[in-house]
Specification:
Length: 226
């Protein structure tokens, strides 16, 4: 059954529809391994339409935010999921301790790197700063879930922390996941270490030297250190 568009999203959906490009949509769908339909918008066009939409419509009421976001997630075109993430980022100061449940739901539905890799550092990462008391219990839950997208998110939520990165936690998570065969885990280990190496290269070098990592994780971690 076709998902009904929430009234809040209707103007944005119509704006995206007006610029639909079947050729680019076909290419984009193939790039995402034929998992999602697209309007086929360029990044600049999508951002321009979204900016105008927000200017004219503002934010949804706090009480209907989850409903609005989940509706965008249920729509077939991937750009609607991107719009939902951007909306949440712009409303991040209004997030509360319950927001982690929504973020987890988003990570687990229509999961792919293009959404997960935005949600983890931009939404989860920001929330953990505002509500540090939920960090450890959330990360332990995700690490024990057996779901590699949640585990990848555990590795990536600190990507933008720079000097505020909890290196002990980062290295512990990398160690615990080092034996995983999943590509997206191995890649995330390397990415998270490479990013922290911009702040503390010595610590990353020391960790990589003493830890048995996959070749992919090691190469990614040391990419800018050689």
């Amino acid at each position: 059954m076709k998902t009904q568009i929430h009234p809040y999203w209707q103007p944005l959906y119509e704006g995206f529809e007006f610029l639909r490009n079947p050729e680019k949509a076909k290419w984009g769908k193939a790039y995402l391994r034929n998992q999602f339909d697209l309007f086929g918008l360029t990044g600049p066009d999508r951002n321009e339409v979204f900016h105008l939409f927000l200017k004219e419509n503002g934010f949804p009421a706090a009480g209907e935010l989850n409903e609005v976001i989940e509706n965008a997630w249920d729509l077939p075109e991937r750009e609607m999921q991107y719009a939902a993430m951007e909306l949440l980022f712009r409303m991040r100061k209004q997030a509360d301790i319950q927001s982690i449940d929504l973020y987890e739901w988003l990570i687990l539905h229509k999961s792919w790197w293009d959404t997960v890799d935005y949600i983890a550092p931009n939404l989860v990462g920001n929330l953990m700063v505002g509500f540090p008391e939920i960090r450890n219990v959330t990360i332990e839950k995700w690490m024990g879930s057996g779901n590699f997208w949640l585990q990848r998110s555990s590795l990536l939520f600190q990507l933008k922390y720079k000097a505020k990165t909890d290196s002990g936690l980062l290295f512990d998570l990398c160690t615990r996941l080092a034996g995983e065969k999943e590509f997206f885990i191995r890649k995330a280990i390397g990415w998270s270490l490479r990013q922290y190496a911009r702040t503390n290269p010595e610590a990353v070098m020391a960790f990589v030297d003493k830890t048995e990592l996959s070749g992919l994780s090691r190469r990614e971690a040391l990419k800018h250190l050689k």
